[in-house]
Prior knowledge:
It contains 20 helices and 8 strands. By secondary structure, it is α/β, with parallel strands linked by helices. It folds into 4 domains: 2-77, 2-Layer Sandwich (GMP Synthetase, Chain A, domain 3), CATH 3.30.300; 118-275, P-loop containing nucleotide triphosphate hydrolases (Rossmann fold, 3-Layer(aba) Sandwich); 280-354, Orthogonal Bundle (Helicase, Ruva Protein, domain 3), CATH 1.10.8.60; 359-449, Chromosomal Replication Initiator Protein Dnaa, Chain: A (Orthogonal Bundle). The strands form 2 sheets. A 5-stranded parallel β-sheet has the order 5-6-7-4-8, sandwiched between helices. Strands 1-2-3 form a 3-stranded mixed β-sheet. β1 (29-33) and β2 (37-42) form a beta hairpin. α11 (280-293) packs across α13 (314-331) and α13 packs across α14. Residues 116, 120-122, 127, 154-160, 286, 314-315, 318 line the site of adenosine-5'-diphosphate (ADP).
Amino acid sequence: MTDLWTEALRGLQPRLGRETYDLWLRPLELLDADETRVRLRAPSQFMKEWFENHYLAAVLDEMRSRVATPPAIEIEVAIDMGTPSPVEPSVSVPVAPPAPGKPARAPAPAGLADRYRFDTFITGASNELAASAAAAVADEPGQRFNPLLLYGGVGLGKTHLLHAVGHAIHDKHPRLRIVYLSAERFMNEFISAVRYNQFDEFRKRYREDCDVLLIDDVQFIAGRDRTMDEFFHVFNALYEAGKQIMVTADRTPSDMQGMEERLTSRLNWGLVADVKAPDLETRVAILRQKAEQDRIGIPDDVCVYLATLVRSNVRELEGALVRVATFASLKGKPITEAFVREVLGESAEAERRSAPITVEAVQKTVAQFFSVRIADLKGQRRHKGIARPRMIAMYLCRELTGASFPEIGLRFGGKDHSTVINACKRMSSIQQEDPELRATITQLRAQLVGAPLAPR
Ligand code: ADP
Ligand code: MG
């Protein structure tokens, strides 16, 4: 018999994607195999469990497409040599007393939310790479991806994964000192350390007394020179000592304006993984889990309906569920599709009304619509292909943003307020006789008003 295991893996690889495959399947070592049994060795207990929970079923399916009865898969765990601390619990022999000054168990990391753990994180195509990389980091801090940077839009689970890594490392490597904080807090502590002459303590906390550094929203320090400088030194000290660094951000390092080149390049040294908006299936799974956690009675088909209404981000999705559940219990009504429509219809409308539309958003939308550059809208060129879009943009700014004529002028490259007034007058009079222009403006207006949140 040819090697069924290898064949099954080969069949799976295209479906899983290269990264996932390299991360979770390739490290499994084939020890021996016959028709009834395949014996494997996983590098760690965590890798074994992750494989069993996420990929074993798929492997067995692959095998079933080749043989009637797939063999049993047995996985043993290699003795962890490379990890910084021995596996501790469930050892009956008392552990040798710790060396003086070195605690056997570091205190639980401060600032981690208890509910942000791996077992409450739902994976799907949108976040699979990020989640598996985070799990690998948690499993073997400092060994696999260093630094690990997760980036993506708001409310997509980056902070959740960062906390999950903190919890998992603490559970598995209780001796490691884990430091978690937001980049903003890092900056504030740094500033106050400088001001109150406590720089030594600061340095000790982040460079010496730290085995794992978890920093949330690192983009915050971009443009803040002294903080960037300090972070650079912290990064180097930890990195050189083989300590794990993990950060999240709302964009890639190269897109962080004002971030020092040497920091950008370091943030790119390890793995940069993105977190995207979840697909429908994942959104439904997240809703189900949340409903179960909070004991919210919501039928499956209503879950699906809700998940089709709220698409862009998980935080809003959770918020919508909570809102619906709160109203349902207040009114003593069951959660049905109609009920969801009733509740969210109102609040979605209110949200839209309260979300301000910005001058930038108008400029961007108009520029895209006419395929001109924003710089041209702000510039002086009078060519009709540019002057017309510019006037339309000014007109819509006046109508939708609440900005004054002088302010609009300022935001269009420092033009005089009379220019703006003229543009607005002309647009409203031409619209009367030009149905095409009217339609264009209506369409742009709809696009702007319908946008869930104006970009800042
Ligand atoms: P970000 O840091 O990317 O802005 P968060 O990590 O704060 O987003 O996530 C927002 C909310 O959505 C949190 O309550 C988090 O638990 C939840 N969430 C996001 N993604 C998932 C997921 N894949 N599974 C379960 N909950 C999720
Ligand atoms: Mg966050």
